[in-house]
Write a structure and sequence with these properties.
CATH superfamily: Metallo-dependent phosphatases
Family: Belongs to the metallophosphoesterase superfamily. YfcE family.
Strand order of the largest sheet: 3-2-1-9-10-11
EC number: 3.1.4.-
Largest sheet: 6 strands, mixed
Helix content: 10-25%
CATH architecture: 4-Layer Sandwich
Number of helices: 3
InterPro entries: Calcineurin-like_PHP_lpxH, Metallo-depent_PP-like, MPP_YfcE, Phosphodiesterase_MJ0936/Vps29
Protein name: Phosphoesterase
Strand content: 25-35%
Shape: globular
Order of helices and strands: EHEHEHEEEEEEEE
Mean pLDDT: 96
Keywords: Hydrolase, Metal-binding
Low-confidence stretches: none
CATH class: Alpha Beta
Number of domains: 1
């Protein structure tokens, strides 16, 4: 199973179009959205190309391929525009060989405040806008970074899971972080 991860679109149409283009090129079956999809949030500037209704329209074309969780900037009003569920605080993906990926935005659960995970699980979250793919103790911590507002001088990025490996990739194609799972 090949998965494509994006987080923190924050209503930016340009970023969303870039994500959808890379998703199409990746051959992934599932687009995992890790929250903060439509709203820019009160602490962030309004991004260039801010157009939440158009972002929703574009994402709705991929409804059958999306798994999404709610971010701290997402609301019930956003859900009214989206044709796929995105109001859950977390979800799970079950992989072959009993591997599990816990999906969340990162404001409730994250690397430092984990839910009950078993040894060998992974937690995938956004929120910090900082890419990460590494083993911490006995779990994988994975963050695809941010498409719209990357931080700490990282480029805009997305994530991939394929053949037992997590990767964070810049839109220029550089691997920013990776780890086996």
């Amino acid at each position: 199973m090949k998965l494509f991860f994006a987080s923190d679109l924050h209503g930016c149409l340009v970023a969303t179009e870039s994500v959808l283009e890379k998703f199409e090129q990746s051959g992934a079956q599932t687009l995992v959205l890790l929250g903060d999809t439509l709203n820019h949030g009160p602490r962030n500037p309004v991004p260039e190309g801010y157009n939440p209704p158009k972002v929703a329209e574009r994402l709705n074309q991929y409804t059958d391929s999306i798994i999404a969780v709610r971010g701290n900037c997402d609301s019930e009003v956003d859900q009214m525009l989206l044709e796929f569920p995105m109001m859950t605080d977390y979800s799970w993906i079950l992989l072959e060989e009993h591997k599990r990926i816990f999906l969340t935005h990162g404001h409730l659960y994250n690397q430092d405040k984990r839910p009950n995970l078993k040894s060998g699980d992974a937690i995938a979250h956004g929120h910090t806008h900082i890419p990460c793919a590494e083993w911490v103790d006995d779990i994988v911590v994975f963050n695809p970074g941010s498409v719209t507002f990357p931080r700490q001088e990282f480029p805009a990025s997305y994530g991939l899971y394929d053949n037992g490996q997590f990767q964070v990739v810049s839109f220029e194609g550089d691997i920013i972080a990776e780890t086996d799972f």
